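Hey, quick one: can you model this chain's 3D structure?
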Amino acid sequence: MPKVKSAAALPAAKPAKKTAAAKAPKARATAPHKEAVAHSKRRGIQSIEIGFRILDVLRTAGRPMPLRQIAEGAGMAVANVHYYLVSFQAVGVIRQEADSGHYGLGPYALKLGMAALEQFDVFTSARPVMAELAATVGHTVFLGVWGNRGPTIVYRIEGGASRPILELRVGSVLPLLNSALGRNFLAHLPRTITGELLKQELKINLDDKHPPSHSDLPQSAADIEKMLASVKENGLSRCRDALLPHFTSLSAPVFDHLGEMIAAITVMGPMGILDDDLQGTTAKTLKARALQISSDAGFGKEVATK
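Sure thing. Here's the predicted structure for all 306 residues.
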């Protein structure tokens, strides 16, 4: 039987040649290039952001301005602002008055604004905001607009804290006095638009031999004016136990770039479960979401302060 050589007696094995993969440095556990790509997607072009800061100075001023005032408003050096204005003039975003030398927004800025207004759709803008709101407050959320027959529901999302409100569907037309949505439009639309419908509802209420026992429904012209003043003061409307028994609702207006009401977001739920305090968390959240949609429509602080 042949003897088996010990491991020590065996010739040393030649080291294997390094392959291209072996020569390459080991890959890190967290792929750094992926992190860099993700980070680069979040980065913007700083010069563009600075340029729009200059444009915003002119937008909020509402009039042509001298170069030095624009620089002061943007918090930049005069020379740097001038470079931006020259480029903006070349594409028509900025124009310079021949007599005064002041700078104002140019014809292309007007075209951009008109295009943005034409492309804005309150339904598209409101949907994700309403989904977030319904998830936050846990109750049904409606989007309402003024239709041919009055306040009309055009979209709704259910929350998870209460049963679906089957009585109110997309296409339902709501009353002015007996709904938070209607009270919102009544407070913000011209009486030339709402007057006839209001007259009809008042007549029905006066002819009703069995008026509702709750105190939420206004019974006179003085009550209506008091209610509308409260809507404007609080920035939203409330309606308790009127549209549906034992239900309450809050409605916040959505304004366009001219400060005119174009829609409303309404939250509705059972009384005692939905927090309808006009200064409560639900009311504040609702107002913030409605303002978010209004901002998408071009509504701003300078309009709100008019």
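One thing worth noting: The first helix runs from residue 20 to 23.
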